[in-house]
Write a structure and sequence with these properties.
Blueprint: E1 2-4, H1 7-14, E2 25-28, H2 32-43, E3 48-51, H3 60-63, H4 75-91, H5 113-128
Parallel strand pairs: 1-3, 2-3
The structure holds flavin-adenine dinucleotide.
Flavin-adenine dinucleotide binds next to helix 2 and helix 3.
Length: about 130
């Protein structure tokens, strides 16, 4: 996989020199989404180039809190975030030691009785869904 955040390198990719290995996939954006797509493509055996105008992870990804949370604003969101969390749990043991990963859980804090009811509902719904 080639990763380029350098202007000269990006220019050379626009006009590849003879003999330069061709890429099968060109991904613009070295945030978590681009990186995840690149990793999947590389795993599938494709030659991948990732381009970014700035540093790797220098966009929104760099601002993230790193919180992997299941959300339940709708059944579809719950299903998607549950699936995503499962993928993270599969990925975590394969990550290098420098990648901090901790299963610390999520604390929902209720500020009043109404919010406490919501916390109870969440707790029951999550338990029911396993
Ligand atoms: C304060 C904050 C906290 C957050 N906390 C969490 C959290 O705890 N958990 C969570 O799951 N999500 C969190 N998020 C959301 C999460 O960070 C984003 O959904 C995610 O990082 C988006 O990733 P991305 O790869 O789509 O975008 P980005 O990380 O922004 O990557 C896009 C990349 O594309 C590059 N790019 C764009 N246009 C071009 C171009 N024309 N040419 C070259 N390069 C280009 C940019 O430079 C950038 O590097 C948080 C977001 C914020 C703002």
């Amino acid at each position: 996989m080639t990763l380029s955040t350098n202007a000269a390198e990006r220019e050379s990719l626009r006009h590849p020199k003879p003999g330069r290995p061709p890429h099968d996939v060109l991904i613009v954006g070295a945030g978590i989404v681009g990186a995840a797509c690149a990793a999947e493509c590389a795993r599938a055996g494709l030659a991948v180039t990732v381009l970014d105008r700035g540093p790797v992870g220098g966009g929104t990804t760099g601002a993230g809190m790193g919180h992997l949370v299941v959300l339940d604003d709708s059944p579809a969101q719950f299903a998607l975030t549950t699936f995503s969390r499962r993928l993270w749990l599969e990925l975590a043991p394969t990550l290098p030691p420098a990648v901090a990963f901790s299963r610390c859980g999520t604390l929902w804090v209720a500020a009043n009785a109404e919010e406490f009811e919501e916390v109870r509902r969440k707790s029951a719904a999550y338990r029911q869904q396993g």
